[in-house]
Amino acid sequence: MTDPLLRVLLLQDYNTRIVLLGTMLFGACGGVVGTFMLLRKKALVGDVASHAALPGVALAYLVLEVLAPGTGKSPPWLLAGAGLGAASGLLCAKLIQRVRLIKEDAALGIVLSIFFGFGVVLLTIVQRLPTGSAGLNEFVFGKAAALTVGDVVSIAIASGLVLAVCFALFKEFSLLCFDEAYAAALGWPVGRLDLLLTALVVAVTVIGMPSVGLLLVVAQLVIPPTAARFWTDRLGTMTLVSGLIGASSAAAGSLVSALVPRLAAGAVIVLAGTCAFAVSMVFGRQRGVLWHWLEQRDSERHIGQLDLLRACFESVEETQRRAVLTGESDLTATPIPRESLLTTRAWSSARLSRVLVAAMRDGVVRLDADNHYRLTHEGARRARLAARNHRLWELYLIHFADLAPSRVDRAADQIEHVLEPELIEQLENLLEQDTLRMTVPVSPHP
Amino acid sequence: MTDDNQPSPLSIHDMTVAYQRRPVLWDVDYEAPSGKLVAIIGPNGAGKSTLIKAALGLVPRASGEIAFFGKPYHEMRSRIGYVPQRTSVDWDFPIDALGVVAMGLYRKIGWFQPVSRKYRQQALAALERVGLAEFASRQISQLSGGQQQRVFLARALVQNADLYLMDEPFAGVDAATERAIVELLRELRSAGKTALVVHHDLQTVAEYFDEVLLLNMRRIASGPVEQVFTAENLRRTYGGKLALLDQVGHRMSGK
After folding, report:
1. pLDDT, tens only, A385-435
2. Which end of chain A has a smaller Cβ tally under 10 Å, C or N?
C-alpha cells in the first residue's frame, strides 16, 4: 500500500483522481475543438489565443493588486483576464487581415508576438511587486497538481458546454470546414459559426491554462487531431479518436507527473501526445506512413515483375524472329539470355538479379541446368498477358490521346478492368494489324 | 424571352463588382431565360465566376440589383443550386462522397439535427443519377477529378432546385464525365429547370447549350446560340486573341 507507483496507478489518492479528471476533460475538449480548427486550416489560431492570454492574465493581476492589494491570485479573475486577452488577440488578428497585403499567417504571427511580448513586460512588472508572481507562473507553465475540487468542477462544466456545442453543431461545423463558400450560398451564417468556433478555442485555452499552462495549450489543439487523421477517413471517427487521444495523453501526463515530484504536468502531457502522434503517423491504419510505404513497395515489385515478364516475352519474340503474341509458340522452351534482359530494361545488374530472384520465388521464371533462364508455364501465361496489356495501352495512348491521360493505369492486371469492352475491341483490331506486320519477316539480314 | 407572368430565374440589373477600385464586372444587365441551358463565356478574368458569386452574395456588389424568380436571393435559396469550382475545396477532407452530397440537404435537415437515413437515401439517389452510387462510401480524394466534379453536381441536384449555377463543371474532366454532365443538363432542361454554366470550350457551346452569355467585364451579348454565338461577337468578347475564333465562326456560319 505504501508503494507510490501503485498508489498513483490505482488512483488511491483523492487528489490524483481530481487532477486526472480535470486534465482529461480538458484533453478531450482540445482534441474535439482542435479537429475542426485543423480541418479549417486554422490550427495556429489556438497558438495566438494562448499567447495573447498572457497579457490578459498579467493585466488582471495588476488591476486586482491595485484595487485591493493581496487579492491578485484569484483564479476566476485571472482566467477572465486570460479569456479577454485571447479574444482581443484574435480580434486584432481579424482586423489586421482587413488590410490588403497582410495575409492570415502574417497577421497571426504579428499578433502572437506583440501580445506575448507585452505579456512578458507586464510579467516583469508583476515580479517587481512585493507580493511576487508566484501565482502567475502557474498560469504560464501550468500546475496540474494544484487543481482543487472547485477548479475541476468549473473545468467540468466548461468542458461539458464546449463538447455539447460541438456535438449539437457537428454538421454545421463540418460544412463550414469543408466548403465555406457553399455554406454561405446555402444561407448558413458562416460568420457567426466561425466566431463561435473561435470562441470555443478561447474557451479551451482558458480551461487548459491552470493545468498545462498557456504555452502548451495549443499542443492539445493540434497534436491529437493530427494524430487522429492517420487512423480514419471519417470526420465523426476522427473527432472521437482525437478526443480520446487528447484525454488519454492528458491522463498519462498527469499520472507521470504525480509520480515524479516537480515534473510539470503540462510538459509531460504534450510529450505523451507526441508519442501518440508518432505512433499514429507510422502505424495509423488509414494514412499511416508504414502502410503507405508497404503498399508502395508491393506496387513497385508488381510493376517490376510485369516489366521482367514483358522483357522475357520480347526476348523470345526476338530470338524466334516472329510475333508470338497470338500464334503458337513455346514460350517456355526458348532460353532467355541475361544480357538481353539487361539491355531491354536498362536495369542495373543488381536490380535485375533481385527481380529475377523474386520471379523465381513466385514460380514464373526458372533457371535450368544449362544455366539459362526460361519462363515457366505460369510465367508464359502471365508474360503473354503483360505484353498484350502493354501493347493495348500503347495503342490506346496513340489513338485516343484526347481521353487517355486520366484513365491509363498500367499496373492494372488487365486492361479490361479499366476500359470498356467496345474500346478494347477497337484496340484489339489495331493490335492485330500491328501483329500481322510483325509476323512478316522483319529483315532478311540478322 | 420569359413569360410575362413568370419572372426570370435570374435577373441582374446594372450590377457592378469591384475589387478595390478595379472593376471586375461593370454595369451588367442580364435576364436568364427559363428552362434553358445557358453557357457563360468569356476570356480568363472576364468575371464569369464573379458574376455567379456576386449573384449569390458571396462577393460584395458595388451596385446593382439581383432577383431570383422575381424575389431577393434569401427568399429563394431553396430553389437555387450552386456548383462551385472543384478546386475550391480540400479533397483530403475526411469525408466520403455520400457525406459531401448530403451537405446539399443540410438546410432542409435544419439546425442541430443529424443526417437521418431518409436524407442519406436521398443523397444516394443523387449519386446514382451521376453514376457514382458504387463510390458512395469512398473518401473523396480517392475519386478521379471527373468523379469529384460529379459529386459536386450531385450535391446541387439533391437540393432539387429550379435554377443551377455551375462554375466550370467541365474543367479538367474526362470524356465519360463530360458526357454524363451533358446528359444531366439535358435531363434538367426537360424537367423545366434552368442552368447557367461557366464554360470554356468554345467548340462544344453550340452542341451543349441553348443560349450564351458573352461576358468580358461587360455583357457583350446574350441570347440564343444561333443568333448570338457569332464570329463577330466572339471577336468583341475575346478581342481577336483566339485562332480558334475563325474556325468556330466558320462552323456557325455554315449552319
Report:
1. 888 888 877 777 777 665 555 555 555 555 655 666 677 777 778 777 776
2. C
* Shortest Cα distance, chain B CAs vs residue A184, angstroms: 7
Q: Specify the pTM.
A: 0.84
From chain A, which residues contact B within 8 Å (Cβ)? Answer: 39, 41, 100, 168-172, 174-175, 177-179, 181-182, 184-188, 229, 232-235, 238, 402-403, 406-407
CA distance A151 to A418: 61
Interface predicted TM-score of the whole assembly (ipTM), two decimals: 0.91
**pLDDT per residue over B199-252, tens digit each?**
988 999 999 999 999 999 999 999 999 999 998 899 888 886 555 555 555 555
Give CA–CA dist B168/B88, Å, rounded.
11
Instruction: Compute the distance between CA of residue B203 and CA of residue B141 in angstroms, rounded to an integer.
Output: 30
Region of poorest pLDDT, from A57-66, A134-143, A256-265? A134-143
Say if CB A139 and CB A207 are below 8 A apart.
no
What pLDDT is attached to residue B246?
54
C-alpha angle A167/A172/A173, rounded to 5°?
A: 75
Q: Is B58 within 8 Å of chain A by CB? A: yes
Q: Which domains does chain A have, with CATH numbers?
A: 2-215 (1.10.3470.10), 292-437 (1.10.10.10)
Distance (Å) from the C-alpha of residue A178 to the closest C-alpha of chain B? 7
- Mean pLDDT throughout A143-167? 90
Which residue stretches of A321-445 are H helix?
338-345, 349-361, 377-399, 421-439
Asked whether the beta carbons of residue A181 and residue B144 sit closer than 8 angstroms, the reply is no
DSSP A271-339: HHHHHHHHHHHHH-TTT-HHHHHHHHHHHHHHHHHHHHHHHHHHHHHHHHTS--SSS---TTTS-B-HH
Name which of A41, A182, A232 is nearest B94 (Cβ-Cβ).
A232
Cα angle: B234, vertex B240, B246; to 5 degrees: 65
DSSP state of B79: G
pLDDT tier for residue A26 given thresholds of 50, 70 and 90: very high
Q: How far is CA A356 from CA A210, A368, A387, in A?
A: 63, 13, 18
Four-point Cα dihedral A35, A37, A40, A44, nearest 10: -130
**B145 contacts A406? CB cut-off 8 A:** yes
The answer to whether the Cβ–Cβ distance between B106 and A171 falls below 8 Å is: yes
Q: Which chain B positions have a beta carbon within 8 Å of A41's beta carbon?
A: 90
Q: Whole-angstrom Cα distance, residue A310 to residue B75?
A: 64
User: CA-to-CA distance for A47 and A45, rounded, in angstroms?
Assistant: 5
Which of A179, A240, A295, A422 is the mutation pick for testing B, counting most B CBs within 10 A?
A179
Mutate to test the interface with B, among A98, A100, A182, A196 (most CBs of B within 10 A): A182
